[in-house]
User: What shape does this take?
Amino acid sequence: MFYFAKSLQAAALAVTALALFVGFREQEQAMTKELTMLGIGVIIFLIGRLIENIGAKK
Assistant: This one.
């Protein structure tokens, strides 16, 4: 459970880094795509954090 949670958190950081890259590369509607990807990354990270906390309690 711990490693799955950490994998989700790492994937979330990768999505966030990709969002930053998209924001730099694209000219049209870059902010919308960047913020959407950032939100997805935050949600994935929080899910990983919740799973990590649940696994630590057991």
